[in-house]
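Late entry, evening session. Most of the bench is empty. Finally got around to the prediction I had been postponing all week. Sequence below, unchanged from the version circulated by S.P.
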Amino acid sequence: MKKVLSSFAVIFLMSSNVFGQNIPLDSSVRIGTLPNGMKYYIKKNTLPEKKVDFRLAINAGSILEDENQRGLAHFMEHMNFNGTKNYPDNKLVDFLQSIGVKFGQHLNAYTSFDETVYMLPVPLDKPGNLDAGLKVMEDWAFNATLSDAQINKERGVVLEELRLGLGADKRMADKYLPKLLYKSQYADRLPIGKKDVLENFKPDVIRKFHQDWYRPDLMAIVVVGDINVDEVEKKIKDNFSKYKNPSKPRERKVFDLPNHKETLVAIETDPDATNSMVQFIMKDAEAYQPDVTIEQYNQSIVEGLSTTMLNNRLKELINSNNPPFTFGSVYHGGTYARSKEAFQGFAMVKEGNQLNALKVLLEEVERAKRFGFTQTELDRAKAQMLSNLERSYNNRDKTESDMLVDEYVRNFLEQEPMPGIAWEYEDTKTFLPKVTLAQTNEVIKKMVKNDSRVIVITGPKKDNITMPTEAMVLNTFESVKLADLKPYEEKAAIKNLVKPFKSEGKIAKTETDAKLGTTTWTLSNGAKVTFKKTDFKDDEIVFSARSLGGNSLISDADFIKTQFAFAALSEAGVGGLSKADLTNYLAGKQVSVNPMVGPYYEGISGRTSQKDLGTAMELTYAYFTGLNYNPAAFNAYKEKQSAMLDNLLSNPQAYFSNEHAKFMNQKNPRFIGLFPMEKDWANTDYKKAYDIYKEKFANAGNFQFYFVGNIDEAVFKEQVLQYIGSLPSSGKTSTFKDTGYRQLTGDHSKVYKKGKDPKSLVTISYSGETPYNEKEALALSALGEVATIKVIEKLREDESGIYGGGARGSMNKIPYSAYNFSISFPCGPENAEKLTKSAVTELQKLIDKGPEQKDLDKYKEGEYNDNKTELKDNMFWLNALAKNQLDGSDKYDILNYQEKVKALTVKDLQDVAKKYLVKGKITATLMPEDGWENAKKEEAKPAAVGATVVKQ
């Protein structure tokens, strides 16, 4: 947890027994520093079993680049995957895939302003994998080969990544970043860099960056997993101590985000912008200092409570029948610079409403500053904070390694405290009761500043939209100070979601499945409840309910009128309580329950804890029996959706997806587009959707409920009989139906033109009906994974033509049996035709010769690796149990998956390639609008703020 307001005197807040005491370090983590200054963190953690997570953190990023190196911190990250001492050229990815590590999904890295971090999870099911992981870490740290050939080859890949950032957001960011990053080095050191530097730098320039900054005293290695700590520590000392720092190391400077007296305002528009947003930043006067003492840590708790209460008020506004914005929040925390924090607010709004949204944000801050909070609000915020910590504390012995490593990385890079969840929970539980309203109210007053403010407003450029002026924005601050505001009015507390009642529910039948470890109760109302007790987590229960039918049973005319309304139904609340009421009631409880009506079934999904199971059941009952009808809530939902979606088709990728989907579904009268537009909302019948929902949820006898987690059967049984056993039932059964509509098949080639930037997207697909075959389905899925390997090897590594891309194969049983195979990748428009031919050539090789055995083996190792982890995951089991109800698949598939993967052969994959990839090819290409060649000149400008963290 970060310290927020370092200048705030906090001594009087603390009890004397913690005065001056430092925050302890988690004693379960072995922390050390080698003689060369390299730091290490090692922890034994057995979830997942036989796996270890590595991180290499380097306290150097783009902020340290010289002018002729702009973009080379990130380029250096790329180069560590393109040749090291022990893994020349592209052998690193090849090797890691061979032991079950998937490129991109598992193996990854990022570069930001101040740091570069490499991530590597390694399965420990084979001897030597631990040493191999450490060898990769060592090579990444010190042994990049940086050959001229590999550097020049990688230029195209990095330039393709730069290309992905082009668009309206980049154009607007280029204009507002000089104010957001006023007079700071950060404004000129965005990680993606400059196009002309990336194209033209001499190899020695990146070698100098590596020499200067990839050095032991700026590094830490983190190792967390199913390991022997002493053994790993010895290996680190033996292998990493030999590396030396430069004799005259460059100073690792810390850069600031300067303060300023004036309020800076940036108002930027673009014809292709898809969202309207407003943001304010009020910079702290002093430099950020990490928490060191318990007093500072506890003060951060006070500050967290204050912003939680403010955000709870904003959520009430968002969930009201007249929401001022689609999303809005405030927080106090980090900026682009490590050395500076700020009080910040953000809102996404309907176009033209940015100034009003800013006014609402500032008014709520002013209201809190002027009148403070209420005791009920404070109690609620305390309950929220403690509940979240309690969940982590209860599951402290079942925390995944990848959830721990990043905390240790932050400790190294930012000195974030790492006392461990047990200390955090106990300290917070002890301290929270002592926090008073006077303390939280004082925090808000300290956060709000009259200087060092920046306001950024962005949105689409349209003739009918008038954007505010700088003077209007500045006047908003002054008018809010003088506004006639009233204190926040607390609503009456809710005691129950459902009035107490006596249930007549009984268990009519009990079935057990020893193989799956499940029990199924058939209740007296016909509902079925299947549950599986697990110890994967010490405090987690996930659940779902399904009744087959969904909107497939609705007529075409009614479907068109209701398809976009179903997602809005829960916005009305339940039992006469609004959504805002529910949010307040659930504060401090680990309860999530979501009803839905989908294509083939209607149902419920949710997650809870042992303690809150009763509340989750109560809410589930309420969604079945007491959903409110509230046209005003629907209209508010519609407004928020319109704010997000009305301009979405200005985005070339969204336009491409929507237009191609319309082309593929041209014979389907139920398809009107991927996103609801104004005319679609005008044709939407909320009342009809509500009536359909009520009818479907009035028959619990057609539902099967699934629960997986650390279930106390006696308590669970009581809750099931009380709430599920008492649900109404009609005795009728239903299932989904095939509407008979099919997507387009045959050979087609379509080109869609949208956008001014030189960006393209290519999709090659094959699909059609076929009898379902379980072996073919698995082979087709495997073929997609193998084809992804080949696409990356050919189009990225050999031709330097793409940054990312891949293939996917699948076969479905519902609503009818069909296959689908596709390849997609973004690229430059000048290369689209060439790369499409290359991708098709790779597919043809798979058809003619089948895949290479080594690539099939890579797929298998990756699947084994994933499946071993998934089998210890509650949600994975939940989805597997429910799948059988939907498509009638073998319910024991979850137990036999690895055997079936192991049985796959090269011939199996070649056979499905020959069967399904020889006809019916549909190629869709997104191209920029005519004249795009002129826009290529704009690529040389710095990339947008979205490049702050650049994923490898």
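Two things to note before I forget:
The two ends are 27 Å apart (CA to CA).
The longest strand covers residues 760-769.
Will write this up properly tomorrow.
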